[in-house]
Every structure is written in C-alpha cells, then in structure tokens.
Amino acid sequence: MFRYSKGTAGREIGMVLVTLVFVLPLLILLNVSLKTSGDSIAESGFTLADPVSGSGFAEAVGGEGQYSLLRGAINSAVITGGTVLVLIALGSITAFTLTRITSRLSRVAFGAVLLAIVLPSQLSLVPLYSGMRQLDLLGTRTGMVLLYSGMLMPLAVFLYSGFTRSLLKEYEEAAQMEGAGRFTIFSRIVFPLLGPATGTVAIFAGLIVWNDFFTSLVFLNGSDAVTLPVVVYSFVGALVSKWNVVFAAVILSMVPILTAYVFAQKQFMQGFAGGVKG
C-alpha cells in the first residue's frame, strides 16, 4: 500500500523546483514582451507588465525587409519543408539499400554514415561556402535545402536503418516472387511500414533546420531568403533598446515549431527509440 512519506514530499518539491527553473525563462520572455518599450527598459524582467501592452507584437509583425517576420517564416517553412522531403525520400531508400545488401561495402558505407554523424558539420563550412558561391547558390532557398539535406542525411539514414533491419523480409520475398521490382517493393510495402521512422525524421530534422541560426547567418545574411532566426537576430541588432519587440519576435518564432512538436511528440519519441534500438 502506498504511503505518503517525507521522501515523497521531498521528491515532489524537487520536481517543482526543477520545473520552475525551466519555465521561468519562458515566463520572463512573455512578461517582457507584454510591456511597453519604456517599461521593458526601466523595469526588471520579474516585474509584472502593468499596463499590459501588445505594441511589441504589433511592431514585430509589422517589420519589413530584413525585419519581416512573415517573410522569415515563409522562408523557414520552405527550407524546412524541402529539406524534410529530401531526407525522407533519399534517407529511407538509402537505409533500405544498406540494410538489405549484406556485403562488406554496405557495412563500410554504414560506418561512414555513423562517422558523419559524429563529426561536427562546422568543419566543412568553408569548402561548402566556396562551392555554393561558385554554383551561385548562396542566399537562395534551393541552396539551403541542398545544404541541410547533405548535413542531415547521415542522421536520417541512421534512424531509418534501425527500422528497416527490424522489418520481416517475408513480405518482400512474396512480392518478389510475384514479379515486383525492388523499387515497387520498397514504395508499396516497405515505406508504408516506416511511418514511425518517417515521423521521427520529419520532426527531428524540422526542429534542427527551423531553429538553426549559425548556418543560415553564414549562407543567407543580407539576402531575401533569410530565415526566422536570422530575422530575430536582425531585430536584436536594430532594436536593441526595444526589448519588448525583440522578445515578442522570439515568442512568435517559437510558436509554429512548438505547436508541431506538442502534437507529434509521442510519435517522435517512439520513432527515435526504435531507431536507436535497431
């Protein structure tokens, strides 16, 4: 029989304190964003907004050019969506091929995939920048989709490989006996069974690309294809005294990806656990 003890109370208090540590920055962010420009400078972030003002959100939404949150959101959505589609299409079929071809070459290739995950992508930024400039892909959404797809492809292959190894081969063998080709087998039998892995790749890669700042700053700064993190950075540089506007821009940039994660977190955790297990 469960008995409420001092130890239980201590654990509950500890969990509440840990929760407050994580929630407090978000509360300060929201509180400052609801202040007027003058109050956001003169008052502490812990002081409650009085009066509550939406001027910060209005000014953040009303930006133009490099300071347009709407343009940044559209660019982020296009780049993130394009990258996720490429990763799903190529990552799934690559993982299927590597796990079904039992040769030394496939094992070496999978080892290279694991090595690419461990190595930091920043090591290749200089040659990538030079190559994209020669191909006239700098400052373009197409260039960023190709760049992110290459950087995240090893992770996508790794996650898909865990699932493809666990799939029974009997379905594939039966379809092959009926005369189906390997691509037909993959597209009609294997890929529909990779739903959890596909959801994991989509969410995980989407979070990385949507929130990435450094790569976007290097390859997109000064162009019309700037993403949301770069737009928020531009707000900080230009509106350093209007912290309510800056914090409002940060909150607005967080809403889409947090909403997607909240609704898909169960599938994300199941898929990631399955990929690691495999």
Sheet-strand content, in percent, reads under 5%
Total domain count: 2
Terminal Cα span = 38 Å
The CATH homologous superfamily of the largest domain corresponds to MetI-like
SS class: mainly alpha
Query: N-to-C SSE series?
Result: HHHHHHHHHHHHH
CATH architecture of the largest domain: Orthogonal Bundle
Roughly how many Å is the radius of gyration? 23 Å
User: Count the helices. How many?
Assistant: 13
What's the total number of strands? 0
Main sheet characteristics: none
Model description:
The radius of gyration is 23 Å and the shape is globular. The protein starts with 5 loop residues before the first helix and ends with a helix. The mean pLDDT is 83. Helix content is 77%, strand content 0%. By secondary structure, it is an all-alpha fold. The chain folds into 2 domains: 6-60, no CATH class; 66-277, MetI-like fold (Orthogonal Bundle). α4 (69-100) packs parallel to α7 (141-166), α4 packs antiparallel against α10 (195-211) and α7 packs parallel to α13. The longest helix is centred in the last third of the chain and has 35 residues, at 243-277.
